[in-house]
Every structure is written in structure tokens, then in C-alpha cells.
């Protein structure tokens, strides 16, 4: 794909013209697990689908292009992307991470620390993170904005310091997507996504992706990707490619909707705090009376009570019992993830329907 094309064109053209044999506009789905060698000692470039699949390769080329990366590897889930990324680093690596993390990330990090695989230093703010990065640091791990407190970190500033100390920087860019942020251009070494979320956008694909511009890092990632097999299936690769075509349109609409919802929530007497970074579709808010959370959730009709985020449908999540339940209550409370917090993933519905739904539910 030409590097001169702009983002919207790259997205709209995801997968097209990839079938030279027939000229099919949409990318074919190559289900074959094995590929015929033309002759002894020759290869078409595809030998076994775990190593490389034509449909997945087309998807990965598009993902790399939109994230300004040289390389991309599509994985079977967002957690598979996280595990693949961290496991290229040696045993005993020291990690500085933001405390406000997706609960699944924390669960795996905590398990690895118990096993002696890594050691973690958690920080609540950007200032704390900068102070914690030292010559002993091997990895700096950032979600920005964070989940669910929506705290933004300065990737460029953190990357500069981390590199001075000899550390690598990993950024989870799930919430903003390449529409609002390109971490590699800001100095990060590796960027990853739960592609289940905004990249696919329709709550029907489980996927992840890891991207980098570093040749040595890519070689390690590719080796483990092939060896351990957390690869994305051909069909899911196709669905993700199809979802990418509308990424910019979806992100813009969800942001427009989210800004209107934030305006409403800030003036709702039942709400005491709204957490929103200014763009994207993710909002968290704290209610005055946490005992009313079950009735608020049950009264919603347009917004669906479900885990996950980033789809065309608006969802509400209660992190305390869902996405962040694996984080001990005292730890959650220590950094502001309190039991009165609800998280919204705003979709592409009519903004007034979303506001009316929230208004009715909050007044129950």
C-alpha cells in the first residue's frame, strides 16, 4: 500500500486489490492451513497458516499503515497481544506501569510477578511514572488514556526519558486508536491494541494486534507469534479488515455523541464527577448514590449493560464487578477506581436517544 495515501483512503481501501489472480475487490478469505510448494526447494511465500496467511497478511499490512508501523502481527485477542509483547523480554525484567489498567492486564501482570517472571512498579500519575523510571527499568507500559479513569500520559516525554535510561516503551492504544494517536511517532517502541474494540467496531470479532518499527523487536515477536500460535483466524482477519473501513467515521461519530453525553452528565444532579479526556467515545462517571447503580443499569433501554467497548452500540460497564473485578478492592480505591464509578462506551446512535435513556435511568 502506498505510503503517500492518507489515513481515510488507507482505511477505505483495506484489503482491496489484494487478489491479483481474479481481481476480486474484497480480500479473499484463505482458509487453507497449508500451501503447495511449486517445486522442491521453492515456496510461494506461504507454507503453513500459523506462520503466514494471505488474508491475515493483508490485514497486517493495513494495520501497520494506519499506525505508522513497519510491522504488525494480528493476534487472537487483545490479551494475546499483551502476552506476546511482554514475553519477548527476559525473565527478571523490571516494569514501570500506570496503576490504572485494564483488569485483565493487571490479572496477568500480577500472576507473572508472583511467578518471578517480572517485577512491577505501579504509578498513579505521569509525574510518578517519570520519577520511577531509572537505569534499572527495562519496560515502561502505558495505557493512555487509562482504563477507566481516562488519565492521559505524555508518550513523547515518557519515551524520551525511558530511552535515556535504556528502557523500551509499550503503549496500549486501544481507547484512542490511530485516529487520535500514533504512539510510534511519539517515541514508543511497541504499540498494541485490543482490536476487538474500536478497530473492528462491531462487537463480533475477538482480536489483537502488536506493531513496531524495530527490526530486532519484530524478529522476536514474529518468532514467538509463529512458535506459540496466538494467531488470528482468516475469517476474523477478514471481519476486522471490513470493520477498519469505517474506523474514522465511527470514531468521529462516537466522539461527537460522547461530548453531548458529557455535557448532560456534568449537569445531572445524580452525578458527582465526569471523567472524559476530550476525544473518543469512552466516558466514566461517578454517581452521588452508589446504591442506586443496579437500578440505573436495569432502567437503561438504549444503552446495553455489557462488558467490552468500542462497538457501534453504546455499552455501560460497572468495573467493580466486571472489567476490574480482579483488582483487589483496596487497591482500586487507592487510585480512585471507587464503587460509585460507571463506564460508558458511546456508540453511533442518535445522541438525543442516548441522553434521554441516561436521564430516565438516573431519575429512577
Task: Describe the structure concisely for a colleague.
With 364 residues, this protein is α/β, with parallel strands linked by helices.
Number of domains: 2
Residue windows where pLDDT falls under 50 for at least 5 positions: none
SS element count, helices: 13
Termini separation (Å)? 53 Å
CATH fold annotation of the largest domain: Aspartate Aminotransferase, domain 2
CATH level-1 class of the largest domain: Alpha Beta
Q: Could you please describe the fold and organization of this structure?
A:
By secondary structure, the protein is α/β, with parallel strands linked by helices. The protein has helices at about 5-10, 55-65, 80-85, 105-115, 125-130, 155-165, 175-180, 215-230, 235-245, 245-265, 295-300, 330-335, 350-360; strands at about 70-75, 95-100, 120-125, 140-145, 170, 190-195, 210, 270-275, 280-285, 305, 315, 340-345. The protein has a seven-stranded mixed beta sheet, sandwiched between helices. The chain has a five-stranded mixed beta sheet with strand order 8-9-12-11-10, covered by helices on one side. The chain is globular, with a radius of gyration of 21 Å. The mean pLDDT is about 95.
Amino acid at each position: 500500500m502506498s505510503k503517500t495515501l492518507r489515513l481515510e483512503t488507507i482505511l477505505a481501501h483495506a484489503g482491496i486489490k489484494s487478489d491479483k489472480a481474479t481481481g476480486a475487490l474484497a480480500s479473499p478469505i484463505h482458509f487453507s492451513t497449508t500451501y503447495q510448494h511449486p517445486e522442491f526447494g521453492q515456496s510461494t511465500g506461504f507454507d503453513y497458516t500459523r506462520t503466514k496467511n494471505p488474508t491475515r497478511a493483508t490485514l497486517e499490512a493495513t494495520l501497520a499503515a494506519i499506525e505508522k508501523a513497519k510491522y504488525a502481527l494480528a493476534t487472537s485477542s487483545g490479551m494475546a497481544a499483551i502476552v506476546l509483547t511482554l514475553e519477548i523480554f527476559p525473565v527478571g525484567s523490571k516494569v514501570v506501569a500506570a496503576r490504572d489498567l485494564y483488569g485483565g492486564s493487571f490479572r496477568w501482570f500480577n500472576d507473572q510477578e508472583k511467578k518471578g517472571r517480572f517485577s512491577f512498579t505501579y504509578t498513579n500519575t505521569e509525574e510518578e511514572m517519570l520519577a520511577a523510571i531509572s537505569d534499572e527499568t527495562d519496560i515502561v507500559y502505558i495505557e493512555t488514556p487509562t482504563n477507566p479513569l481516562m488519565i492521559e500520559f505524555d508518550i513523547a516525554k515518557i519515551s524520551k526519558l525511558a530511552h535515556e535510561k535504556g528502557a523500551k516503551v509499550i503503549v496500549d492504544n486501544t481507547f484512542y486508536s490511530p485516529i487520535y494517536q500514533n504512539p510510534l511517532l511519539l517515541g514508543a517502541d511497541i504499540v498494541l491494541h485490543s482490536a476487538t474494540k474500536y478497530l473492528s467496531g462491531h462487537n463480533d470479532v475477538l482480536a489483537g494486534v502488536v506493531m513496531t518499527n524495530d527490526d530486532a523487536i519484530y524478529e522476536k515477536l514474529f518468532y514467538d507469534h509463529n512458535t506459540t500460535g496466538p494467531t488470528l483466524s482468516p475469517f476474523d482477519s477478514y471481519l476486522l479488515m471490513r470493520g477498519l473501513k469505517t474506523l474514522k467515521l465511527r470514531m468521529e461519530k462516537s466522539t461527537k455523541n460522547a461530548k453531548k453525553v458529557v455535557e448532560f452528565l456534568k449537569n445531572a444532579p445524580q452525578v458527582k464527577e465526569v471523567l472524559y479526556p476530550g476525544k473518543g467515545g469512552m466516558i466514566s462517571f461517578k454517581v452521588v448514590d452508589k446504591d442506586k447503580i443496579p437500578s440505573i443499569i436495569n432502567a437503561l433501554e438504549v444503552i446495553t449493560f455489557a462488558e467490552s467497548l468500542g462497538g457501534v452500540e453504546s455499552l455501560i460497564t460497572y468495573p467493580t464487578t466486571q472489567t476490574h473485578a480482579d483488582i483487589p478492592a483496596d487497591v482500586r480505591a487507592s487510585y480512585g477506581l471507587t464503587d460509585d464509578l460507571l463506564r460508558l462506551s458511546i456508540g453511533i446512535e442518535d445522541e438525543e436517544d442516548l441522553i434521554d435513556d441516561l436521564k430516565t435511568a438516573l431519575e429512577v
